[in-house]
Write a structure and sequence with these properties.
The complex is a heterotetramer.
Chain A: H1 3-30, H2 34-59, E1 62-70, E2 76-83, H3 85-108, H4 115-133, H5 138-156, H6 163-194, H7 199-207, H8 213-230, H9 239-242, H10 248-257, H11 261-269, H12 271-274, H13 278-299, H14 305-326, H15 329-356, H16 368-371, H17 373-387, H18 393-407, H19 411-436, H20 443-447, H21 453-468, H22 479-483, H23 488-494, H24 503-524, H25 529-538, H26 540-547, H27 552-597, H28 605-624, H29 627-646
Antiparallel strand pairs in A: 1-2
Helix pairs in contact in A: 1-2, 1-4, 2-3, 2-4, 3-4, 3-10, 3-15, 3-21, 4-5, 5-6, 6-8, 8-11, 8-13, 10-15, 11-14, 11-15, 13-14, 13-19, 14-15, 14-18, 14-19, 15-17, 15-18, 15-21, 17-19, 17-21, 18-19, 18-24, 19-24, 28-29
Chain B: H1 2-21, H2 25-45, H3 49-74, H4 90-110, H5 125-133, H6 141-164, H7 168-171
Helix pairs in contact in B: 1-2, 2-3
Chain D: H1 4-24, H2 28-52, H3 59-89
Classes of the chains: A mainly alpha, B mainly alpha, C mainly alpha, D mainly alpha.
Chain lengths: ~650, ~170, ~475, ~100
């Protein structure tokens, strides 16, 4: 490919990065114009991304790199670009959602005291995410992996005056950092075993037998723990709900569409390695399936609309992981792609509500349907898509996953997936019914109106995509499945074969979803509050268990957080008392000994002279070497010494 | 010769003991002068009359006078008791000094000095000059040491002046 | 010749400053000028000789004591160049950051320049005895800087520092002398590879050398002098103390212990790596519960230095390069953090973490750069520490998987305490209403904190700027190890 | 001919006597005198070496000159110190001058 094209593709991540530096350094000068810079940069990046996608479609994968650190035979790292079909779709999604969010944020963040800084970090995030997506090796991936974590930290903590936001940011960073450390160790293992960090070369090395068996599984599990941290899978899911303290557009971009999907993307990216360890694949599948179910149950009882959507995100990411784990590669990534649109839309809808009124609690809302029609209808579309109702986007990918689990004989996972479908439909429509139907419950809800156009336009665009994005992967014309496919190698290992589209399974999953919506209507439709109330009374312990997030956070607090603090105190005290005490004690011992020896220093000049003479005699005796003289001399020395000491002046 | 040696040795050593043991400081100083004279006599016997001259001039003359002056400046009524002029450590001191003397005498006496014959040293003043300036067949290290000695004397003179100078505030004491 | 000039210019500077009248507006510009000269020379060397540090213009060799093979031999190599640069750079920063030195400013600068002579000399010395001389030459100025301009605990702290590190360096000197006398020369170049000594002799000699250097680094559990001294010293002394002084120890390991005694160091490697990991974990846990902001930074420093040990113990290109680079990056971030801590303490009147909060609201630059420094310290990509840490880890894990894994877990711990620190100092609501009007960093303060921050960023994005310089030297060391 | 050893033994004994005095006398001036005795004994030894040993090349005499010079310097400085101490402390007794002890 030509240098011009390379430059153009490089510009995709570099432009937002430049925008970050400009906005961060000159933010005060730029002020309110920051959003125009951001939107312009993102639009450009989006157009370039589309161009890259076009190039990939016509010419195949793009790949080039420059040396970053070169140690000759000692190994070298490069920073490069690898845009294959997977990455091409991903960068388009990232730049597109990012563009939408930048548009939306312009109005949403109006009047914020750190307006330019917000856009700066948002752009840094976009740049990092793009850098991650196009990474051809683990080192580059890790670099940007950490950077998106940083951006997430900064954006969750954007309103850092609020202790809740500050603590949530801290929690998010630390929890994901645990995953990152595992990922790092995984990278270290790969480096040690294969001497490279490139995805392709590691895969080849593994095929050639340089790494295999338990070690390969261990390395992959560690890499997967990294993905678990980023994608908020069990047991590192605890940060994502708290992360909702950040501005809502941030949640839409980072905690729904892009960054949290990075974990899934990582597994997809390294799929050729993963498929070589069936044990690792099983772990991925079961962690994913379990997370999907668990998060869905937690979402059932939440009152905060953003948290409901957050748990939904955890749950949906679990789906994707499960899909990858069972070998339904295309389905998993297809779901990621669809999910990005409808989940971003859900968050933007929530953001619109926040914009109109200050509370996140759905029971403070009510009756918003008439007052905020655009928000309502887009939310319904997104909800239907999430619930997997035909023919919206979510249906196509979710159905592929459910069907995949069935066809590959993972019946437990299939059962979990179906239950999750039901729960998903229930909780999202519970939120929609409570928030939008009936009568307003507060003054704020009564006064709510739809947000300005700059915010609704992205929502409408995303709504359209929530309906239609899945249509490129229908069984009639499976464009997506023909484009993003596992490599021939992975397909061979997994023995993937074409399956006919199962209408029965599709009908089943849609029916389950509709049943969920129906139950939600039965319990939460206007005038039926007593149903929910009686259900709550009957299942109070279960409700408490779910509301306390299965007590997982409490468990972590009691064990890890307390443990680390106790250890910290112990080390501090050891350092202060023990170690420093030992050194001080040594000093004391020396001065004690000195004090005891002090009488020897009589201060009398002649006393010293006497000792000199005695020492000379002793030395002379030694030099003479005659044993007798030596003994006598020493005897004399001892006698004289004791007399001299006795003679203290 | 032997007689002279015995007399000189007796003079030197007894006078030395006198320095140590006499109760009066002035007596000590005079005994010291006597001892120096004995050493000067030895120098004459050892074919070094020049050194003997130096010895008399510097030690018997200058040093003794200096010491006497110091005694004049610092003397206060002396204790009459002999014990009080000595340190409390006089017994170990005596033992140590005896040990040293015995040891030195023993070592120097049993040592085989090889072929010895008197009359080897520089006898004339001219030879001394050559020796100190490192000329002739003598080792040339003395040229340097000689100059160093000169410098030391100069410094010592200055130092003595500085140290013993009365300061104004001391006058008030 | 250039090297010698660069080393001794500060000595002239010290004299010059001492002769000037003791007024800040006269002293400070002159001191700045003096400090800028070595830095300018280093930059000139980088530009003109970057790829060719062996050039004769940079090295000098005079015999001093011929019978013992001791000589005045200086020259730059890739191992020392980064630190040579950093020593010059941080001295300049320290000169700027001396705003809390209230009295005897000219004596302060004069002593600081004396210390600079020692620091520059250590990194350029090519002779064991010369190395030792410069090594000790830093000690007394540092002792004076802490002991005369520190806070109320300065005296005991300074004495502890002096005795502790002097003990270490004396033991080290014992090793040096044994090595030099047995081998008949003290020139590093001739000693490389062991100077003809057998394996047993090398092992025996390596022990005191490594121990002595470990005190200087300091390696846990020999670190107990460090917190007291760091806490007591004025800001600008901290800059040098944390940025350069520990590297006297690590450069000794990298430039002397390993290439000179390859077989002797080899049996100790697993332990060195283990102590590196211990440093990382111990430093993190000790930092975790500190109540004093400065103490937290001090302990974090102990932790980060562990990566140098880990990388050095790897005996492979990746790890050694990482260790050499980590020396520089650690210096940059710790200097930055100590200055910022000093500014914050001066503004708020406290160093207790629990008493702070929301400082980013009133001091965005100070808070932002504190965050940047903390993020750098915890190894965030894009900032230079990440590069060196990852390289050290890759190399270290390659050679010592268990120690490497433990060290990698330090990544979590460092994130924990630094985020905890950020959350309680710059984030959150403003703790006291009167802090609303706290002044953000002024021009002088910005001049002290922006350059290290910028360098962290530049080296983080383009690590090759330094890696390419040090790479040939590391390869030389590797060839010694392989051949030895 | 008187044997060399005789001179040496006299020198040794004189040295011992000087040592004894230097160790036990309280009066600083006497201590100085005793030190002078020791120096003289050394001189005596050196000069006898110079006279008797052919290999000495007369070096003993040279050293003796130097010792005399140093002794003179020492006496000058030493007595000056004694004077200064006496002025400050009103005593020349060595065992009373132990300010360095504390």
């Amino acid at each position: 490919m030509s240098a011009g094209q390379q430059l153009l593709i490089l510009a995709i991540p570099v432009l937002p990065a430049l925008a970050f530096f400009v906005l961060a350094l000159f933010g005060r000068l730029i002020g309110e114009n920051a959003q125009y810079v951001a939107v312009f940069v993102n639009a450009t990046a989006f157009i370039f991304s589309c161009f890259a996608l076009f190039l990939v479609i016509t010419d195949g994968p793009i790949s080039f790199s420059v040396s970053w650190i070169d140690l000759g035979e000692g190994g070298s790292f490069s920073m490069g670009v690898l845009i294959d079909e997977l990455a091409a779709v991903m960068i388009v999604v990232v730049t597109f959602v990012s563009l939408m969010i930048n548009l939306y944020s312009g109005a949403f963040m109006e009047g914020d005291s750190r307006y330019a800084w917000y856009f700066a970090v948002l752009n840094l995030f976009t740049a990092s995410m793009l850098g991650l997506v196009i990474a051809p090796n683990f080192i580059q991936l890790y670099v940007f992996w950490e950077l998106v974590g940083l951006c997430s930290y900064l954006l969750i903590g954007h309103w850092f005056e609020k202790p809740a936001a500050r603590d949530a940011a801290q929690k998010a960073f630390i929890v994901t950092r645990i995953g990152d450390a595992a990922l790092l160790v995984g990278i270290l293992i790969f480096w040690r075993a294969t001497g490279t960090t490139s995805f392709a070369e590691i895969s080849q090395a593994a095929q050639a037998g340089f790494i295999g068996g338990l070690l390969l599984t261990a390395a992959l599990v560690l890499v997967f723990i990294g993905a678990v941290g980023k994608s908020a899978q069990f047991p590192l899911h605890v940060w994502l709900p708290d992360a909702m303290e950040g501005p809502t557009p941030v949640s839409a971009l980072i905690h729904a569409a892009t960054m949290v999907a990075a974990g899934v993307y990582l597994v997809a990216r390294t799929y050729d390695i993963f498929v070589q360890s069936p044990a690792a694949m099983l772990i991925v599948a079961y962690i994913g399936g379990f997370t999907a179910l668990m998060a869905a149950t937690m979402a059932l009882v939440k009152k905060d609309i953003k948290r409901i959507i957050a748990y939904s995100t955890v749950s949906q990411l679990g789906y994707m992981m499960m899909a990858l784990g069972i070998g339904a590669y295309t389905a998993g990534f297809f779901h990621l792609y669809n999910h990005a649109f409808f989940k971003a839309l859900l968050f933007l809808g929530a953001g619109s509500i926040i914009y109109a009124m200050t509370s996140y609690n759905i029971f403070d809302m009510g009756g918003l349907k008439r007052r905020m029609p655009i928000t309502f209808w887009t939310m319904v579309i997104a909800g239907l898509s999430l619930a997997g109702i035909f023919p919206l986007a979510g249906f196509w990918s979710k159905d592929l996953i459910v069907a995949g689990a069935f066809e590959k004989h993972y019946y437990i996972l299939f059962g979990m997936a179906l239950v999750t479908v039901f729960l998903t439909a229930f909780y999202i429509f519970r939120a929609i019914f409570v928030a939008f139907l009936g009568e307003p419950r507060t003054e704020a809800a009564r006064a709510a109106v739809d947000p300005p156009g700059v915010m609704t336009v992205p929502m409408v665009i995303l709504a359209a995509l929530s309906i239609g994005s899945g249509w490129i992967g229908t069984p009639v014309a499976d464009l997506f499945g023909g484009f993003v496919t596992p490599s021939e190698f992975a397909a061979g290992v997994l023995a993937i074969e074409e399956h006919a589209f199962s209408y029965a399974l599709a009908a089943l999953s849609v029916a389950v979803g509709l049943a969920g919506i129906a139950l939600a209507y039965a319990m939460y439709a206007p005038g039926r509050e007593h149903v929910a109330e009686s259900a709550y009374r009957r299942f109070r312990p279960v409700h408490a268990f779910l509301d306390r997030r299965w007590y997982i956070d409490d468990l972590y607090n009691a064990t890890f957080v307390r443990g680390a603090m106790a250890l910290g105190v112990a080390v501090r005290e050891f350092d202060r008392r023990g170690l420093d005490g030992a050194v001080t004690g040594l000093g004391r011992a020396v001065s004690w000994t000195g004090e005891r020896l002090r009488p020897l220093q009589t201060g009398g000049v002649q006393n010293y002279a006497l000792f000199i003479v005695i020492s000379v005699l002793a030395l002379a005796a030694v030099v003479l070497g005659d044993a007798l003289i030596l003994a006598a001399g020493l005897l004399v020395l001892i006698i004289l010494g004791s007399i001299a000491v006795g003679v203290r002046l | 010769m032997t007689v002279a040696f015995v007399v000189l040795a007796a003079l030197t050593l007894l006078a030395g003991l006198g320095v140590v043991l006499s109760r009066h400081v002035v007596h000590s100083a005079l005994f010291m002068a006597a001892s120096f004279l004995g050493v000067a006599g030895f120098f004459v016997m050892l074919n070094a009359p020049v050194l003997a001259g130096f010895q008399v001039l510097i030690y018997v003359g200058a040093v003794t006078v200096l010491v006497l002056f110091a005694i004049m400046f610092t003397q206060r009524p002396q204790a009459r008791s002999f014990r009080l002029i000595l340190q409390r450590q006089h017994v170990p001191g005596l033992l140590a000094a005896l040990g040293l003397g015995v040891f030195l005498a023993y070592v120097l006496a049993i040592q085989d000095w090889g072929e010895v014959s008197p009359g080897q040293g520089p006898r004339a003043v001219e030879d001394f000059g050559a020796l100190l300036l490192g000329a002739g067949e003598y080792p040339d290290v003395f040229a340097l040491l000689f100059q160093l000695g000169a410098v030391i004397l100069l410094i010592a003179t200055i130092a003595a002046i500085v140290i013993s100078r009365r300061r104004r505030e001391e006058d008030e004491l | 010749m250039i090297t010698t000039v660069a080393i001794f210019i500060p000595l002239l500077g010290a004299l010059l400053v001492a002769l000037l009248p003791d007024e800040r507006r006269i002293i400070q510009p002159v001191a700045l000028g003096v400090a800028a000269v070595p830095l300018a020379l280093v930059l000139y060397i980088y530009v003109a000789f970057g790829s060719n540090l062996d050039a004769p213009a940079l090295s000098q060799s005079y015999t001093w004591i011929e019978s013992l093979g001791i000589g005045y031999r200086v020259g730059l190599d890739g191992l020392g160049f980064g630190m040579f640069f950093l020593a010059a750079f941080l001295t300049l920063i320290a000169v700027i950051a001396a705003w809390d030195v209230q009295r005897n400013l000219k004596q302060y600068y004069a002593i600081l320049f004396l210390a600079e002579v020692g620091m520059l000399g250590v990194f350029a010395a090519q002779d064991l005895i010369l190395f030792y001389v410069f090594f000790e030459l830093t000690l007394i100025p540092m002792y004076l800087l802490v002991g005369m301009w520190g806070d109320e605990n300065r005296r005991p702290a300074a004495i502890k520092f002096f005795i502790y590190t002097f003990l270490g360096s004396t033991i080290m000197l014992g090793g040096f002398l044994t090595l030099g006398i047995l081998a008949g020369t003290f020139a590093l170049e001739e000693l490389t590879g062991g100077g003809g000594l057998g394996r047993t002799a090398q092992i025996l000699i390596a022990a005191p050398i490594i121990f002595g250097l470990a005190v200087k680094v300091p390696v846990v559990p020999l670190h107990s002098w460090l917190p007291d001294v760091y806490l007591s010293s004025p800001i600008s002394t901290n800059v040098v103390l944390s940025g350069v002084l520990p590297k006297l120890g690590t450069i000794g390991i990298l430039k002397i212990a390993i290439p000179l005694l390859p077989q002797g160091v080899e049996p100790y490697l697993p332990y060195i790596a283990a102590f590196g990991a211990l440093n990382i974990i111990y430093g993190a846990f000790a930092a975790f519960m500190q109540t004093d902001l400065k103490a937290l930074v001090a302990y974090s420093s102990i932790g980060t230095l562990g990566f140098i040990l880990l990388g050095a113990a790897s005996f492979n290109a990746m790890g050694l390069n990482g260790a050499v680079l980590q020396q520089v990056t650690h210096g940059l971030y710790s200097a930055l953090l100590f200055i910022l801590v000093g500014i914050i303490a001066a503004r708020t009147g406290t160093r207790r973490i629990a008493d702070m909060g929301g400082l980013a609201l009133s001091m965005p630059w100070v808070g932002g750069l504190l965050a940047l420094g903390a993020l750098a310290a915890m190894g965030l990509p894009g900032l230079a520490v990440f590069v060196s840490e990852v390289m050290s880890l890759l190399g270290g894990f390659d050679a010592h998987p268990v120690q490497g894994t433990v060290a990698a877990l330090g990544v979590i711990l460092s994130a924990m305490y630094f985020l905890y620190m950020l959350a309680r100092t710059i984030f959150g609501p403003l703790r006291r209403p009167e802090w609303q009007g706290l002044r953000d960093a002024g021009p002088a303060e910005m001049a002290a904190i922006v350059p290290p921050a910028a360098l962290l960023l530049i080296l983080g994005i383009f690590p090759a700027l330094l890696v390419n310089i040090q790479r040939p030297a590391v390869e030389l060391v590797l060839s010694v190890i392989g051949g030895g | 001919m008187i044997p060399l050893e005789a001179y040496l033994v006299v020198g040794a004994l004189l040295f011992a006597i000087g040592t004894y005095g230097a160790l036990v006398r309280r009066n600083a001036v006497v201590v100085f005198m005793c030190v002078e005795l020791m120096l003289n004994s050394v001189n005596l030894t050196l000069v006898s070496f110079a006279d008797y040993l052919p290999g000495a090349m007369g070096a003993g005499a040279g050293y003796a000159i130097l010792i005399i010079a140093v002794a003179a310097a020492e006496v000058a400085v030493g007595l000056a110190i004694v004077l200064a101490v006496f002025r400050a402390r009103r005593t020349v007794n060595v065992d009373e001058i132990n300010l360095m002890k504390r």
